[in-house]
Amino acid sequence: MKNNTENLSEGKAFKNRFxxxxxxxSREILRLLSEISKIEKVKIESLLNDFHRKDYKSVKExxxxxxxxxxxxxxxxxxxYLPKYETDxxxxxxxxxxxxxPKNIYYESDAGITxxxxxxxxxxxxxxxAEVESLKNFTRNNSFTVEDYNNRSNNLFxxxxxxxFLKKCPCTSGVVNCGYSVMNLGMGCIYDCSYCFLQxxxxxxxxxxxxxxxxxxxxxxxxxxxKEFFNFKRIGNxxxxxxxxxxxxxxxxxxxxxxxxxxxxIFFEFKTKSANVKNLLESGGKENIVVAWSVNSIRVSxxxxxxxxxxxxxxxxxxxxxxxxxxxxxxxxxxIYYDNWKQGYRETIDMVFDIVPNxxxxxxxxxxxxxxxxxxxxxxxxxxxxxxxxGELLLEQGHKLRYFRDLRIEMYKYLSxxxxxxxxxxxxxxxxxxxxxxxxxxxx
Length: 444
Hints:
There is one protein chain. Strand 16 (394-396) and strand 17 form a beta hairpin. This protein has helices at 4-17, 23-40, 44-48, 56-67, 115-123, 135-139, 146-150, 219-223, 247-250, 252-260, 278-283, 298-304, 311-323, 341-355, 375-382, 405-421, 435-442; strands at 104-108, 128-132, 155-159, 167-168, 181-182, 192-193, 207-210, 228-229, 232-237, 267-272, 289-295, 305-306, 327-335, 361-368, 370-372, 394-396, 400-402, 427-430. It starts with a helix and ends with a helix. By secondary structure, the chain is α/β, with parallel strands linked by helices. It has two domains: 4-86, no CATH class; 184-196 and 212-442, pyruvate-formate lyase- activating enzyme (Alpha-Beta Horseshoe). Helix 2 (23-40) packs parallel to helix 4, helix 13 packs parallel to helix 14 (341-355) and helix 14 runs parallel beside helix 16. 36% of the residues lie in helices and 18% in strands. The protein has 17 helices and 18 strands.
């Protein structure tokens, strides 16, 4: 993070060099200079001395080639996303790991007579409690900022879930749908992963947990809302929160396991980065109950998955689950490009198959780094200097940033080839990719 003196100095140098650039042109050129300065670890003033042309078109072309050397000549100029570069040190995320203990607990009136609320009172006796008419009314006139997101663990909301009991996994138009259905049991997470979409999506300043899980575990809703793919009927939770990070509070896993043990034709997936599997082990597993871990290379996890268990700790938890009758699954998502990425991902795949019983692994998904374009500036503010934005992320369909298609295919083919070498019977599939990418990965 640069100090004010450096910013003023560089801003003055830029204006002296390009006095006739308007607001929009200055914004784009300053964005490119700032990103190159960060990646190459050189001052903007030094970069300004590297070229002599002063016309906007030539300057922009020179900087784009330097910032995007691998893709500049392959894509239209409209694919380069150049928002205003503006950071605020006050928005930096606090990455110190702490045990979850909310300062404030808000609950709707009917929540007060539930077992969940009784557990919450026992676990958090020193929190401030306040009854609210409804979450919607309580938050109606509140603005939501990045600072609020940073402080989300201060507030816990216990409410009645009314929507999204079960829905199809949201897919960008044109991508292959894997037939997954999502059960949204809450919103918010105490982990701080630099790439997490929640930091640009969540609009409530707290962790939301529904108290009415029985309304989610309903035959009519579940059996009428899922379809088969790869011969699997799959339901899972973990889209808007980690499936297990709050399980010691909610004990949802116990209810879910009891329900789906009777549904032999449906696979239910807990999707997590947690090692919080105590309730699962006490409940005992069955083949159609799948515990799935998000995994990455050791370097990517260390540099981006803050407050989470180590990769090895996740895999040891997976082993325990497998030995207690559960199926397992793994999601290499997001796959992130960096120097020596091949070695990093090979090491993690080796760890998976060295630690976790091969027979237990039902599926493995592969997905590359992607995000809504507006999330880029959120990440820059919350994680100053983070390296995942150094890659050549391009604007594609749906106003999302992601790697060039050829690079994505290369990464998928590499990982799928290593997985195949393990003689695994797991289904390997891609997340958020169209049929052409699937064909390039699995048929060539």
